[in-house]
Automatic annotation (TrEMBL):
Entries under InterPro entries matching the protein: Formyl_transf_N, Formyl_transf_N_sf, GART, GART_AS
Family: Belongs to the GART family.
Signal peptide as annotated in the record: none
PANTHER family according to UniProt: PHOSPHORIBOSYLGLYCINAMIDE FORMYLTRANSFERASE (PTHR43369)
Active site annotation, chain numbering: H109 (proton donor)
Domain of life of the organism encoding this protein: Bacteria
SUPFAM superfamilies attached to this UniProt entry: Formyltransferase
Pfam families: Formyl_trans_N
Stretches that traverse the bilayer: none
E.C. code: 2.1.2.2
CDD domains in the record: FMT_core_GART
Protein's recorded name: Phosphoribosylglycinamide formyltransferase
Amino acid sequence: MKNIVILLSGRGSNMEAIVRAAQAGQWPVRFSAVISNKADAKGLVFAQEHGIPTAVVPNRDYASREAFDAALREVIDGFSPDLVVLAGFMRILTAPFVEHYAGRILNIHPSLLPDFPGLDTHRRALDAGVAEHGATVHFVTAELDHGPAVAQARVPVLPGDTEESLRVRVLAQEHILYPHAIRLFLDGRLSHREKIT
Ligand code: GAR
């Protein structure tokens, strides 16, 4: 039984997709905790309703990024994670934090990395006029949105697309991609940048 800790800041639809996939597929995992930096993150409600322990580490309570990351790390490690899953966790993490979880921390980012790291990925994809957009699951490293990609999902950018229509199309793929990537990790089968759609 592997322990998974999920970090999120908001809605938590990726967390929900992961938990549902694990339940449906009877994965040999325990969701040890869902942890948020925001007390009002909607994702915490789903976790509580599904019997997953939750914790809140409010970043605003800490004077520095380093102090926040140290506190977060202590809470996470209390749940002995084999894998830390960032699912819409909107904080930049310090190098010592990331290095502590090297090789066992994944993130999903709503673009085809290395294109469009950072925020507002859908608007920037539209502005750039790309024909394809998508999402990437990658190992987290100290450089934001630059860790080794392990899985990508592609969607077409269609005539008349808005930021919202593109966001919805990409998010639907995220909900397939992230559970798939985590399953590969659990099976010890993650290869560098596996393309599944
Ligand atoms: C997702 O689209 C995820 O890719 C993105 O935040 C959203 C969270 O949605 N993550 C990032 O932008 C990280 N840089 P969710 O809370 O419904 O899973």
